[in-house]
Amino acid sequence: MAENLLIAQSAGKAERYEVLLPQIESLIAGEKERIANLANVAAALWQTFNFFWVGFYLVKENELVLGPFQGPVACTRIQWGKGVCGTAWKEARIITVPNVEEFPGHIACNSDSKSEIVVPVFANGMVSAVLDVDSDRINNFDDTDARYLNQLARILERLF
Description:
This protein has helices at 13-28, 34-49, 83-91, 143-156; strands at residues 53-60, 63-70, 77-79, 95-97, 115-123, 126-135. The chain is of the alpha+beta class. It has a domain at 51-159: 2-Layer Sandwich (Beta-Lactamase), CATH 3.30.450.
């Protein structure tokens, strides 16, 4: 695949995901370098949806460590069970937060973040990373995002 995404910005959210996911699969096919692949995936999501922040936190020695991302500077380390990312890791489930100010223990890496979705990526039945997507708009994520980002996480599991 060329390093250009072919996605009409006028398309609806579900249609953009449906066009994007096969392109991501092609983009990472044959490339074994995990960090390069995760960087391209973060860039593809950020470019396609104009999200405020898109990135990965990788499980390393009992904490989440910042991985490839697109957007403003971010928190470098997050503890198990802390914030949205640490909670998604602890509970091994997708967490969608309509308003981050209302999430108990939210970690404000950037005060412009208003809503968030975090999707765990598994390896051998354990969470090995989380995909974190932030918006600068309240209530920007829904079941469509959860469904397609979960599909993306399953695609990414082969990298771990």
